[in-house]
Amino acid sequence: MLINITENIDKLVIQFPGGMGELNSYLFKGENGYTVVDTGVYSDQAIEIWNQVLTSGIKVEKVVLTHTHQDHIGIAKWFQEQIHVPVIVSKMGYEEMKLNRRPKFVEEFKDLLLAHGAPGIPENMRNQSFIYDFEPDGFFENHEQIMLGNDTYETVWTPGHAPDHYCFYNRKKRIMVIGDHVLKGISPVIGLWSGIEANPLKEYRNSLDLIKDYPTDIALPGHGELIHNLSERVGELEERHQQRLEQVLALVMQEGKSAYDICMEIYGTLNIIIYLSPFMSCLTRLIYLESIGKVYRKEVNGKFLFRANS
User: Fold this and answer.
1) How far, in Å, CA of 207 to CA of 64, rounded?
2) Which residue among 45, 126, 238, 246 is the one 20 to 30 A from 171 at the CA level?
3) DSSP tag of 72
4) Rounded to whole angstroms, how far apart are CA atoms 170 and 157?
5) Rounded distance, CA 233 to CA 218, Å?
6) Which residues have a Cβ under 8 Å from the Cβ of 252 and sit 6 or more positions away?
């Protein structure tokens, strides 16, 4: 089941229903067992895959998370409680965990969607606050050294896709665990998944620029294939975001529109079950354009409409 990447790194593809459908978990070999980076969505299918790995004789020393989105943290509590493996997160990730288990999370998330014209929360969206309901065993912050297996990696804070997103970089081997910061085949979704309005696209663009300072031969993404030309891929993402921003700006030149209106114009009519990711992409673009003075918003009948500044 393990796919060998380097002498001490293996990839395990965790499959699960819904969402991206799979996640790359990485196992770093160490003297006391493997360090697992990211775990997969909490599901029977993902747990069965991990049980097969563990019964094969592989020992896990600890779990480390790049960020706390559901597909990355989903099995962490299970590892801690059932396998008795310590779980390590960033201090900022711990704050995100607490936000995601707050009592009014679903209500506030729904309010955000409705305020920007969306029809509401998809019926199939499950409340998974329970996966965040545990206390991590250790924490890290920006520019610290962390052991993944036998090798030392620098923690690099790259907010945008998630406020608590971190990459892990080994300068000697020119390897970066890149999580969902950069993916090979698709653009990572930039959204407001905690239900609180912010400007993550501004952070993301800054974080893309940041990792240019980390020469990398192998980047290990959270989904899809390995990236061997990281700087080139970063350039492609930067160009794509600029094109999308110009597209959104053009759509609000003549009249005010909600984020949901923009989503429908760009992506077409979407089933309520699958609209969230493209909607979030449009919303965060509008918020970014507002932050640089390209658009302004006004509230009309309880909804925010954005229009270009003249």
Assistant:
1) 21
2) 238
3) H
4) 14
5) 12
6) 262, 286, 295, 306, 307, 308
The string of DSSP codes covering 102-154 is -TTHHHHHHHHHHHTT-----TT----GGGG-S--SEEE-TT-EEEETTEEEE
* Ramachandran angles phi, psi of 129, nearest 5°: -60, -25
Convert the pLDDT of each residue in 275-292 to its tens digit. 889 999 999 999 999 999
Domains of the chain: 3-241 (3.60.15.10)
Distance CA 259, CA 242 (A): 18
Neighbouring-strand partners of residue 29: 34
175: which residues sit within 8 A by CB, 6+ positions away? Answer: 6, 9, 169, 216, 217, 218, 219, 220
The DSSP symbol for 257 reads B
CA atoms within 13 A on the CB side of 235: 4
> pLDDT tens-digit profile of 101-115?
998 888 899 999 999
